[in-house]
Please model this.
Amino acid sequence: MDLLDALSRSGELPLVQTQLHIVIATTHCFDQSIMCTIIEKNMNPIERVERSSLLVAATITGKSVPDLLAPAHRQRIKDAAPRIYEISSRQESSD
Model:
């Protein structure tokens, strides 16, 4: 944001027809190797990363997880990570 502030001279210069893109990089750590996670723990590591990404996206956008998903994927995500639907419904009821 300091760069944006400097480019616009603290808001003195109007920024017309511009877009601001923000990239957020994340990593995901597993207790064991990917192969041990798949074979020994019988977990799908992609589902865990997908769940984390959805929670971050919901937090940033202020939308519920179901609202972020295409209808074709909602049931699959709900089956793989039912708790994120519970979290989303709790947040909506508190608003």
Summary: The chain has a mean pLDDT of 84. The radius of gyration is 19 Å. The chain has one domain: 26-94.
